[in-house]
């Protein structure tokens, strides 16, 4: 809603310098609650809470004029005089006269109440001397002096430390405050009503002014609003609106200026903002335009409805006001300018909707009220959308046809006379959002705004019972999509509309929608099933590799007609479990009567299991189709990669250097394919896996003969990378293998260490283009420690380890491992020489890879002898899945015996070895600090006695390889003594900065005082440098050292007389009674240590 004026009921205070002592307590009882006001009509109104504004009383302040409603509320409703005087003489001579002067000033002003507050402390009130004072207290004299008309205009505020008594005293004061405010408020209301009644009775007299009548009525409304009586305030504005309607009817607009609507942003300003102009000043000056007056009157009503939390009524009144006032604006089109009305209606509707949605967010509505709010909001949004229809047609963003022209039926030519020499006002739409949408030659911004408003209206209608309105808006959106030639979107919207209108009995609309929906289908193919003219069956995959190096699919097509046909295309679509598909097709073939068999070719090869989804045969505009997924028994096929066909893969490298840039090995086998040119695209499918940007890769080409890769490099080349990250492939001859390293970045915090990469190779051979796709899973080697541990049930055989010495460090190897097939931690001894980094090499042998290589070698050898080598990969995958599960890798790892036939390790062991190297950082520091706390008497510590200590700090540069060059430069350090103050007191510097050179020894005195007995830990001491460039280590010789603290001992001698001791014992009971014998010695010496 528009910002409220924030006017509050004013209460003044006049004090004898005691307001500051009670101000906080007084404000803590605000707002005043549960006020009950009874109007002149006998209606009782309850005011739940009323906030007041406290101001200091000023005798020089002038009373605001009664005809100034916006300032009248500044006149106080109640005036308080705080008195704190316990001396009767001081009251009689000074205070009483001050109170009388204050009352004379207050009573000289109209409709202001006053109250004397006597403040006293409870102790003063209970003072016995004052209680028996026959002269009476000051408060008694105040009651006697200022009791007027039997009204108690005084109250005693007793301040007490007792919360209960203090609360009762404050409640008595607040009750008096409420009575005073209600009396003053009632006087204001009576005065306003009498003046309004008198002024209204003079309506037919000469000189009567409607604006002055409005000021009186609004003054009464503002008075009600300040007392939070919003219903009564709203009634005043409704009566003003009714009287203004009569003024319009009588054409008595002499008290107003021009029609208005000519100021900047009049068409786009928030209609609910009552502060955008000085409306009240213009009304009092009789110069307010009709446009501004009616806008202000409507905004004030909506403001009060907002305070009553009635967003439904705001939307309904807004729709009525915009519609009725819009007709008045249309009559003044020559004054306001062209398209002012459309911009004003659009801006007003959107302002009301946005404000009401904000009000709705903290308003609780029941289901019925919620539906009513959505319906009213939808009508406002729909009205705003109609303005887009009008402007869209004018600016040629929309066609001048139905349904967009329905909004134009509301527009007629101006009814006001237009003279020949009269021209329309030049007007520019100031609504930025609307102006950008219509002025832009590109219709995309207009469509975005149009669809946004329409969708909001649709959502609002769907939340109400306005079903037909939502159908209409859906049809409008479909018409827009049809006009933009988005036929697919338009058809989707149109498909649901006919039956919706049909079931409601709106047959005329149903037929029109069907006609439009039918027009969307023009130009589409005629789809028919194969039967009864044809029968089709997908037979099997063809494994033969011919001149075309792609897979083939055998399809049998039976022509049941007696004549032959030539079809344009026959295609079959296969899909896998990941919804990825491959198309097989053939073109321009003869279809003879009877059975015909065709071999369909695919230029895309991706191995895997596939299911036949559908088949299409096109003959001109007629397309025959059959869906195989609807059949009971689905037809599945296996596509295998033939070793003789080009294929690509991503593998992990044999050597991994931890701490350096990691990379994969990408390799492409040409097989029997002669590649003219091609591209390779690598797409990471795992989250966190990325490939750094580069413009080229360094590749090597090797010769591959019968599946064996030559160790010699045939040639080297650079592979350029295009802007779209496609790796350009050069011409390649058959039986070639091209390899190159692909660096990658990886989220090392990931739990999953397997990365998936999709490879797509598009290459040309014999003027034909083919596509190879594959998804490879590569295991990421992830070593975060020097410890080599197993990440699965398959053991790793450690063949060799080495810690390579550098120019700085010598290395002494640990003894050889007795049993290498375990998880190992290797520790080597390092001796200082000159520098700090060397490499640690590790060579693992994975038993799983070892067994797989053996099976793959023997299987390929067997299949090649049977001319079935194209099935090797499929069979190997099944062997891995079923056969290799039964292998006991632990037993194999310890015995090297596998129960799968002969295992010739020597034959392919060279392919199994891989090495991993990573750097080992040796810690280095510029300074090594040796710290010792020397206690003067460590064996004679007594609790509470000071112990003098020496803090000795020695510096060396043992681990600094450059110490010979800069050992003369001093370093700045500071020591910090970490004292447990429950056990020790520290006398001296707890933290102290000092400078020292390498090889120098520093001593500092420290005094410690033990506070407890027993074994106490020596305080910890830390040495550090304030400079971030100086890295130092500290060796504390007293770390975890304990010292024994003994208790303090004393000696005293006491002399006790015997008779006193005997008398004391005889006086007791039990032991030492009559007849008991005692020592007769005169004195006993007792030493107490």
TrEMBL record:
GO terms for cellular component: cytosol; TRAPPII protein complex. Residues 519-628 form the DUF7076 domain. Residues 919-1029 form the TRAPPC10/Trs130 C-terminal domain. Residues 7-315 form the TRAPPC10/Trs130 N-terminal domain. It is found in: Golgi apparatus. The keyword Transport applies. GO terms for biological process: early endosome to Golgi transport; intra-Golgi vesicle-mediated transport. Keywords: Golgi apparatus, Transport. It comes from the Eukaryota. Its main location: Golgi. Residues 1068-1089 are annotated as: Disordered. Residues 645-778 form the DUF7077 domain. The keyword Endoplasmic reticulum does not apply. This is 2761_t:CDS:1. It comes from Diversispora eburnea. The lineage of its organism: Eukaryota, Fungi, Fungi incertae sedis, Mucoromycota, Glomeromycotina.
């Amino acid at each position: 809603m528009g910002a409220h004026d924030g006017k509050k009921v004013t209460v003044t205070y006049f004090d004898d310098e005691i307001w500051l002592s009670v101000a906080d307590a007084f404000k803590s009882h605000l707002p005043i609650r549960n006020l009950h006001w009874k109007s002149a009509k006998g209606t009782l109104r309850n005011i739940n809470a009323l906030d007041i504004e406290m101001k200091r009383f000023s005798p020089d302040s002038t009373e605001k004029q009664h005809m100034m409603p916006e300032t009248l509320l500044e006149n106080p409703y109640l005036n308080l005089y705080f008195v704190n005087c316990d001396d009767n003489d001081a009251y009689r001579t000074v205070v009483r006269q001050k109170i009388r002067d204050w009352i004379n000033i207050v009573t000289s002003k109209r409709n202001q109440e006053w109250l004397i507050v006597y403040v006293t402390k409870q102790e003063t009130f209970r003072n016995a001397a004052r209680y028996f004072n026959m002269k009476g207290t000051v408060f008694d004299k105040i009651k006697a002096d200022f009791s007027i008309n039997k009204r108690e205009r005084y109250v005693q505020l007793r301040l007490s430390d007792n919360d209960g008594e203090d609360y009762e005293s404050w409640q008595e004061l607040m009750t008096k405050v409420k009575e005073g405010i209600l009396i003053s408020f009632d006087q204001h209301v009576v005065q306003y009503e009498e003046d309004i009644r008198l002024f209204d009775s003079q309506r037919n007299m000469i000189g009567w002014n409607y604006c002055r009548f409005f000021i009186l009525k609004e003054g009464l409304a503002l008075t009600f609003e300040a007392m939070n009586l919003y219903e009564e305030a709203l009634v005043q504005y409704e009566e003003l609106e009714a009287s203004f309607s009569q003024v319009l009817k009588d054409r008595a607009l002499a008290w107003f200026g021009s029609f208005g609507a000519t100021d900047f942003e009049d068409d786009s300003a928030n209609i609910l903002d009552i502060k955008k102009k000085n409306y009240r000043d213009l009304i009092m000056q009789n110069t307010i335009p009709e446009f501004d007056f009616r806008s202000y009157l409507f905004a004030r009503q909506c403001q009060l409805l907002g305070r009553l939390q009635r967003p439904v009524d705001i939307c309904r009144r807004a729709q009525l006001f915009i519609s009725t006032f819009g007709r008045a604006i249309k009559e003044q089109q020559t004054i306001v300018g062209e398209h002012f009305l459309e911009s004003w209606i659009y801006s007003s509707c959107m302002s009301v909707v946005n404000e009401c949605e904000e009000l709705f967010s903290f308003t609780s509505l029941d289901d019925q009220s919620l539906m009513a709010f959505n319906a009213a909001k939808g009508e406002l949004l729909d009205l705003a959308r109609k303005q887009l229809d009008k402007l869209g047609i004018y600016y040629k963003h929309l066609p001048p046809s139905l349904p967009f022209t329905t909004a134009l039926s509301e527009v007629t030519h101006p009814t006001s006379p237009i003279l020949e020499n009269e021209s329309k006002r030049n007007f520019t739409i100031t609504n930025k959002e609307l102006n950008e949408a219509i002025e832009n030659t590109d219709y995309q911004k207009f469509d975005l705004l149009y669809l946004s408003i329409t969708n909001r209206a649709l959502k609002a209608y769907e939340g109400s019972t306005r079903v037909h309105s939502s159908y209409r808006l859906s049809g409008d959106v479909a018409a827009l999509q049809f006009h933009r030639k988005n036929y697919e979107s338009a058809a989707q919207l149109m498909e649901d509309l006919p039956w919706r209108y049909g079931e409601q009995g709106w047959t005329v609309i149903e037929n029109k929608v069907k006609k439009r929906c039918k027009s969307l289908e023009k130009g589409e193919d005629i789809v028919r099933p194969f039967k009864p003219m044809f029968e089709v069956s997908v037979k099997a995959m063809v494994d033969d590799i011919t001149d075309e190096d792609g897979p083939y699919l055998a399809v049998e097509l039976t022509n049941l007609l007696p004549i032959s046909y030539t079809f344009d295309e026959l295609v079959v679509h296969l899909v896998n479990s990941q919804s990825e598909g491959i198309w097989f097709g053939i073109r321009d073939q003869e279809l003879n009567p009877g059975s015909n068999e065709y071999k369909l070719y695919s230029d895309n090869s991706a191995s895997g299991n596939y299911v036949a989804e559908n088949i299409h045969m096109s003959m001109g505009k007629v397309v025959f189709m059959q869906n195989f997924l609807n059949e009971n028994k689905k037809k599945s096929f296996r596509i295998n990669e033939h070793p003789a066909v080009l294929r690509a893969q991503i593998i992990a490298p044999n050597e991994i250097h931890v701490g350096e840039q990691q990379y994969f090995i990408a390799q492409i086998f040409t097989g029997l394919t002669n590649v003219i040119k091609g591209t390779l695209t690598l797409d990471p499918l795992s989250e966190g896996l990325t490939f750094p940007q580069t413009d080229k890769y360094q590749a090597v080409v090797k010769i591959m003969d019968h599946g064996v890769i030559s160790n010699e490099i045939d040639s080297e080349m650079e592979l350029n990378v295009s802007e779209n990250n496609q790796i350009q492939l050069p011409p390649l001859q058959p039986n070639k293998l091209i390899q190159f390293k692909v660096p990658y970045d990886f989220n090392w915090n990931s739990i999953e260490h397997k990365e998936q990469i999709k490879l797509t190779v598009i290459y040309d051979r014999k003027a034909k283009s083919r596509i190879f796709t594959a998804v490879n899973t590569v295991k990421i080697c992830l070593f975060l420690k020097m410890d080599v541990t197993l990440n699965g049930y398959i053991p790793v055989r450690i063949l060799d380890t080495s810690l390579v010495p550098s120019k700085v460090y010598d290395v002494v190897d640990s003894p050889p491992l007795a049993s290498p097939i375990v998880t190992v931690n290797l520790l080597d001894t390092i001796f200082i020489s000159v520098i700090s980094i060397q490499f640690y090499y590790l060579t693992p042998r994975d038993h799983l890879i070892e067994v797989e290589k053996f099976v793959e070698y023997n299987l390929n050898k067997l299949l090649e002898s049977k001319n079935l080598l194209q099935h090797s990969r499929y069979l190997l995958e099944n062997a891995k899945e079923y056969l290799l599960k039964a292998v006991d890798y632990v037993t194999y790892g310890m015995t090297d015996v596998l129960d799968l036939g002969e295992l010739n390790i020597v034959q392919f062991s060279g392919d199994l070895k891989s090495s991993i190297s990573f750097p080992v950082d040796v810690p280095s520091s510029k300074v090594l600090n040796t710290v010792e706390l020397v206690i003067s008497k460590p064996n004679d510590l007594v609790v509470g006695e000071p112990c003098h200590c020496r803090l000795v700090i020695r510096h060396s540069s043992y681990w600094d390889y450059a110490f010979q060059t800069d050992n003369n430069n001093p370093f700045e350090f500071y020591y910090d003594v970490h004292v447990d103050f429950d056990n020790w007191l520290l006398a001296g510097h707890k933290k102290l900065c000092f400078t020292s050179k390498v090889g120098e020894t520093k001593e500092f005195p420290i005094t410690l005082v033990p506070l407890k007995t027993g074994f106490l830990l020596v305080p910890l001491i830390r040495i550090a440098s304030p400079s971030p460039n100086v890295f130092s280590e500290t060796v504390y010789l007293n770390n975890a050292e304990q010292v024994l603290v003994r208790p303090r001992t004393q000696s005293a001698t006491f002399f006790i007389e015997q008779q006193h001791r005997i008398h004391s014992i005889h006086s007791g009971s039990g032991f030492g009674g009559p007849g008991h014998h005692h020592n007769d010695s005169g004195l006993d010496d007792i030493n107490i240590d």
